[in-house]
Specification:
By secondary structure, the protein is mostly helical. The longest helix is centred in the C-terminal third of the chain and has 8 residues. It is flat, with a radius of gyration of 6 Å.
């Protein structure tokens, strides 16, 4: 959740 902004397109799923 640290790179949610950097990899938001990918980490977006993990963030949600």
């Amino acid at each position: 959740m640290t790179n949610e902004t950097s990899n938001f397109p990918v980490t977006q799923t993990s963030s949600e």
